[in-house]
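Deliverable D2.4 — example input (structure tokens):
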């Protein structure tokens, strides 16, 4: 037969048995996909090229769609190629991240770019690179890199209509804000989500001067290599144990070689709010510039990483927003970056539906369309959109906050700590002048139940709503509670701590928590019976009570005033619930321990510096410890 004849003559091409099986560049066919993915090395003004992934819907290709699609840009230190690939799929919807779904449905071009020095980009990486100015004498920063990138995109992506929006969460939110410092004219809308704004006051690295230990493994994973560094080989199951054994934060850094990393050195050299931090405070820096781009800043009420910055930026930009159409704030019942995932619950809390999708689909998308799509209708965007928990409903508001010490629709009202571990709106009367506890750095109060698995997302993500009963009866935690409420108590703003306290040491941390205590029984969700839900909590390092930049020892035994704001809250405590305040002096191992003996730099505290101290919290007419609550009167 013919086949046999061909075989014997060797006419059929044969692959040599020993031909190498991994050969040249392989490219899978993409004809069946509904998008094309391009990679460009975009040159910056100093010649450094940044790795950029551009995902274009096929519907925007060719004659019919040419020049019609807007671009959404995210600049990331977290691997642009990976960010642009949730999964491998011929469908753009399945390829891009969950939070991008409405962009895909809306026909947007999506762009992810590695910031300089990370993953595929050239140049040096500088953690949260400061703007050009006192800390950055070079000619480039994230503002210029965003500018140069947008300039290139509008010239080189033929499918675009020339309008660009920027968005991203956390570090990616920080790069959005940086672009606003000197925005390219084609940048028409910005959505910074959970942005890192001030790494000392209350985002990521410190809260009010207390150092957050997860910073150290983060520096390891981000700065040991251009890609993703290895996690620490801690050798312990319980981070509480591992971090306690290491002593100070510097001791922990040394154990893993992290003390050799440049950014660790920078942090350890700047424990106070000195010019290094002040020159990076993005709320102040942006407040000094003209706001030109409509900006919708987004954050979760229980953002466990960047709970400070979004409100600070909104507040700093608000004076420029005379017509209430440039500076928007959105607060959802979310964890850090939760806006980009499913938002029907957080820990034990359940909401009315997928609140994150509701926001993305019904509010963010029309806002972006209005500013980025040619001929799109004006969106009905409220100046402030906030999900009120307790009642579980979205609120469209004209402003934020609703109550505060001055210049708010309602004045803050003090709730006072009372003898007998009570809380009331009356100033304290007769009775014991103070309550006391011994704070022992050898047995710090854990921030979540042990074993503490800080890197476990199940522990870390919802921890700000965790039931506080696991510490409320510790002898080193003071717990004050009101009577069951007869009427709803609505909070809409930032509670302010006004604490009068003394320590037998010469330095001290003060952790204050405002808590909603559920009734003993909650028939609709039994596990919430008696639940102690944290609404707003934070830490303050006592040495900074008079000056954030110039720390000073505390006089042992002398009552001093500690005044600081807690994170914002939008919540109704329902009738039958009780208001609770807890006070403690450690929150470990999230925050490094205060040795309680004053040392110049706590990072380098020695074992002998860690001493027990007796803390007294006062509640007398002269020393009336209180929390100033942002109470919204009924009917507002
Ligand atoms: N919270 C993270 C971060 C932001 C900025 C600097 C360092 C870390 C993040 O989730 O990106």
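Example output (designed residues):
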């Amino acid at each position: 037969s013919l086949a046999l004849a061909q075989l014997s003559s060797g006419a059929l091409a044969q692959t040599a048995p020993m031909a190498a099986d991994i050969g040249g560049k392989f490219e899978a066919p993409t004809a069946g996909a509904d998008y094309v993915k391009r990679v460009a090395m975009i040159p910056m003004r100093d010649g450094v090229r940044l790795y950029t992934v551009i995902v274009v819907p096929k519907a925007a290709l060719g004659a019919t769609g040419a020049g019609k699609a807007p671009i959404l840009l995210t600049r990331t230190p977290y691997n642009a190629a990976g960010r642009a690939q949730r999964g491998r799929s011929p469908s753009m919807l399945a390829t891009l991240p969950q939070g991008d779904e409405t962009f895909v449905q809306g026909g947007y071009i999506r762009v992810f770019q590695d910031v300089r020095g990370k993953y595929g980009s050239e140049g040096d990486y500088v953690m949260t690179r400061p703007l050009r100015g006192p800390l950055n004498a070079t000619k480039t920063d994230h503002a210029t890199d965003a500018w140069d990138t947008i300039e290139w995109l509008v010239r080189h992506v033929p499918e675009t209509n020339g309008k660009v929006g920027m968005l991203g969460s956390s570090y990616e939110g920080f790069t959005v804000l940086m672009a606003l410092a000197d925005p390219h004219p084609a940048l028409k809308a910005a959505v910074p989500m959970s942005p890192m704004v001030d790494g000392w006051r209350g985002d990521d690295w410190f809260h009010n001067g207390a150092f957050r230990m997860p910073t150290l493994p983060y520096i390891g994973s981000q700065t040991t290599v251009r890609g993703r560094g290895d996690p620490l080989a801690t050798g312990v199951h319980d981070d509480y144990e591992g971090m306690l054994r290491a002593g100070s934060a510097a001791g922990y850094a040394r154990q893993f070689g992290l003390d050799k990393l440049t950014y660790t050195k920078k942090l350890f050299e700047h424990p106070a709010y000195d010019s290094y931090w002040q020159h990076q405070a993005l709320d102040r820096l942006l407040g000094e510039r003209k706001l030109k781009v409509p900006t919708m800043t987004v954050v979760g009420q229980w953002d466990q990483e960047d709970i400070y910055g979004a409100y600070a930026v909104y507040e700093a930009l608000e004076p420029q927003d005379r017509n209430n159409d440039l500076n928007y704030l959105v607060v959802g019942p979310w964890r850090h970056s939760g806006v980009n995932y499913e938002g029907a619950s957080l820990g034990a809390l359940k909401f009315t539906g997928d609140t994150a999708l509701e926001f993305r689909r019904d509010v963010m998308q029309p806002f972006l369309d209005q500013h980025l799509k040619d001929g799109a209708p004006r969106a009905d965007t409220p100046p402030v959109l906030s999900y009120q928990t307790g009642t579980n409903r979205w609120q469209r508001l004209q402003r934020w906050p609703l109550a505060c010490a001055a210049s708010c629709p309602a004045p803050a009202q003090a709730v006072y700590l009372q003898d007998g571990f009570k809380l009331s709106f009356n100033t304290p009367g007769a009775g014991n002048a103070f309550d006391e506890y011994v704070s022992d750095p050898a047995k710090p109060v854990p921030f979540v139940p042990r074993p503490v698995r800080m890197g476990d997302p199940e522990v870390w993500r919802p921890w700000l709503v965790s039931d506080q009963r696991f510490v409320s009866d510790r002898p080193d935690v003071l717990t004050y509670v009101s009577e069951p409420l007869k009427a709803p108590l609505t909070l809409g703003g930032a509670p302010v701590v006004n604490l009068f306290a003394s320590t037998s040491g010469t330095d001290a941390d003060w952790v204050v928590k405002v808590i909603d205590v559920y009734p003993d029984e909650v028939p609709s969700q039994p596990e919430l019976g008696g639940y102690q839900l944290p609404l707003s909590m934070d830490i303050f390092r006592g040495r900074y009570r008079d000056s954030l930049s110039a720390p000073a020892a505390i006089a042992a035994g002398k009552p001093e005033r500690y005044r600081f704001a807690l994170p914002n809250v939008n919540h109704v405590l329902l009738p039958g619930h009780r208001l609770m305040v807890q006070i403690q002096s450690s929150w470990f191992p999230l925050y490094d321990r205060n040795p309680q003996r004053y040392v110049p730099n706590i990072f380098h505290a020695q074992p002998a510096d860690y001493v027990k101290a007796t803390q007294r919290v006062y509640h007398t007419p002269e020393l009336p410890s209180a929390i100033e609550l942002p109470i919204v009167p009924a009917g507002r």
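The chain has a mean pLDDT of 96.
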